[in-house]
Design goal:
The chain contains no helices and 7 strands. By secondary structure, it is mainly beta.
């Protein structure tokens, strides 16, 4: 997977206990916007990067007719989402 680290717009839902469920996100490539529905979350991990806690989601979706595996990150302190690897 290639490191991208691109900020994205995300739709997700949060449970009362704090568990996060990403639903879909908007990806902008070459001035084209594409909405990608997350079909499967393979794993969720918590990591700390430069003292900033982040949730790391390993996901899978059908993108342009191909099954792709990618990594999303949610920055807890700033509430920002990133497409980290694809």
């Amino acid at each position: 997977m290639k490191v991208i680290c691109q900020p994205i717009d995300m739709i997700a839902w949060f449970e009362k206990n704090g568990q996060i469920h990403p639903i879909k996100f908007k990806l902008t490539e070459s001035h084209e916007q594409q909405v990608i529905s997350i079909q499967r979350v393979q794993s969720v991990q918590m990591e700390t990067l430069a003292g900033n806690p982040m949730y790391v989601f390993d996901c899978q979706s059908n993108i342009n007719g191909l099954q792709r595996v990618y990594q999303l990150k949610y920055e807890v302190k700033t509430c920002k989402w990133f497409l980290y690897k694809m």
